[in-house]
Amino acid sequence: MMDTGFFILSKLVGALLRAETWIVLLLLLGAWAGWRGRVRLGRILSGLGIALLLTLCVFPVGELLLRPIEARYPVAPPLGKVDGIIVLGGGERAGRALRWGLPQTNEAGERFIEGAALAHAYPQARLLFTGGSGALGDLGRAQVPQAQMAAQLFTALGIAPDRILLERTSRNTAENARNSMALIQPKPEEVWVLVTSAFHMRRAMRSFRSAGWPNIVAWPVDHRSGSFRVGIGWNLARNLHVLNTATKETIGLMAYKMTGR
Description:
The chain is an alpha/beta fold. The protein has two domains: 2-69 and 231-259, no CATH class; 75-221, HUPs (Rossmann fold), CATH 3.40.50. The protein is built from eleven helices and five strands. The chain has helices at residues 2-17, 19-35, 39-58, 61-70, 94-100, 110-121, 146-156, 173-184, 198-210, 228-231, 236-259, and strands at 84-88, 126-130, 164-167, 192-197, 216-221. A five-stranded parallel β-sheet has the order 3-2-1-4-5, with helices on both faces. Strand 4 (192-197), helix 9 (198-210) and strand 5 form a beta-alpha-beta unit. The two termini are 15 Å apart. Mean pLDDT is 87; it is low at 136-142.
């Protein structure tokens, strides 16, 4: 029950922290203040909303926040023995896959590519996909089969079905770690490689260590940050996405640390 409460709260807080939420609120409050006859206040609030909107249209502010988060773990660290590979969910478009009958990925699809590449490089290693639905609207109803889609995709990428393990029920990173630990029960000498997006790796590693995984190696993929100077231009959608990703991870790291997840 506590996990469900944390899950719902995290989704609600996440929506409130999105940059576009604040822009809309400032513009709405500005309009409300003007309608109430407080013209000066209305101009200030509306001006702040427009200034924030224009800033995010031109400047990739999120790059400055996201880059240090993504740089925490090195890319492609040297590996020795590998007993297993863990691919975190989030790279699939399970709803569309269910609709069209073909596996489909989103911009985090590199998680599947790198997971399969590691599985080919270490043919004795097991490959675990962990992830259920992280959508608030899926609470209390049958969920889209993320794990089923992942299995189809890995099989299409040449991984033998008997090497693929599926954890189907987790809704967030903390549950990914705990449920995977319960499923695998890794031995102290086993080495498992954790594959997820670079911006998400710090939170994922903390969660898996807190869950008791003895030997876990970070394998970050799907980097989202780049050059601030190169990113300057007219691209509101991208700048909002990067800023929201950085904000979500920063707050998520703080929340997981405070709750011991």
